[in-house]
Amino acid sequence: MNTECALCGTLLTSMDTLLGENKLSDGGILCNKCLNKVTNINKDLVYDLINYNVIQIKEIFQNSNIEEEKYNELKTTELKKEIPLVAPISQSVQFDFSPEEPTRLDDIKDEIAALNPVLTALTDSEVNELANILDEDEKVVAIVEGTYEYNNLKGILLATQKKIMFIDKSIFGEIFKNKFPFTKITFMQHDTNLMSSGLKIFTSGFIAEFTLYSRSAAKKFYESVEPYLIRPGSHSEKIVEKPQPQQEPVKKEAPEIIFDQLEKLGKLRETGILTEQEFAEQKKKLLAKL
Fold first, then answer.
1. C-alpha atoms less than 13 angstroms from C-alpha of 78 in its C-beta half-sphere
2. 268/274 Cα distance (integer angstroms)
3. Can you tell me the distance from the alpha carbon of 236 to that of 233, in angstroms, rounded to the nearest whole number?
4. 152 backbone φψ class: left, alpha, beta (φ>0; ψ -120 to 50)
5. Are residues 139 and 111 in contact, defined by beta-carbon separation less than 8 angstroms?
6. Side-chain half-sphere CA neighbours of 99 within 13 A
7. How far apart are CA 134 and CA 269, in angstroms?
8. Taking the CA of residue 88 as centre, how many other CA atoms within 13 Å lie in the half-sphere pointing to its CB?
9. Model pTM?
10. Segments of the chain scoring below 70 in pLDDT
């Protein structure tokens, strides 16, 4: 079994091999650091890495570095044309060292960092778009990475104190977003699968279903938004998960009555009136009354 990263040669950790998504077609394995680097270059590789070998991955890095060098060289040339290397003698040069004011995006990223979520580099474009989508008074209270089953898009599911929203930004800059205001949500459900978890958002006439990439993600997301869930037209009554039907308690009877009925059931079976299955069902019901 490979114990070193096929690209950088560092020793692999259990986190690098836990999910088996870092494997290459030639048997090599990438560490999570190299995986994040290569998926930043090509977003689709995170879902198709098994079809590439280590030589192809190195070529992707090499081509990316060549493009970056050309860009930096062009940028440096343009700056030299526009900015004089020496200021005129008659002109005094002043430098402003005053700190820049934090932007709306800076505030949003601070809110996300405080939640300590597990997000991959693939979500960077969606996170950067939040400054253009969220209202000034909205604060991020929950965020996870997942798939919207309605259209099979992969992006981020986040919640503020006003709504839940799914956002996906394609490599061509197209943005898909779907909003679920808390005033429109009737209830929510979550479940746990082998390697993931599911979350369902019920609104009037529509069910939004999401697959999240962690077994505990759906439960944590629900617990974070539960304080903000209210019923339409109410400001106090909270939504609870869909109640399960309650079974009526079994009425107990005296043992002698139960044994008498069991004896009668046995005779009905012997005479062929009751089948073995019918006898077993009735016997089970009687014994439950003891």
1. 6
2. 6
3. 9
4. left
5. yes
6. 3
7. 71
8. 2
9. 0.49
10. 1-2, 19, 65-99, 171-172, 194, 231-251
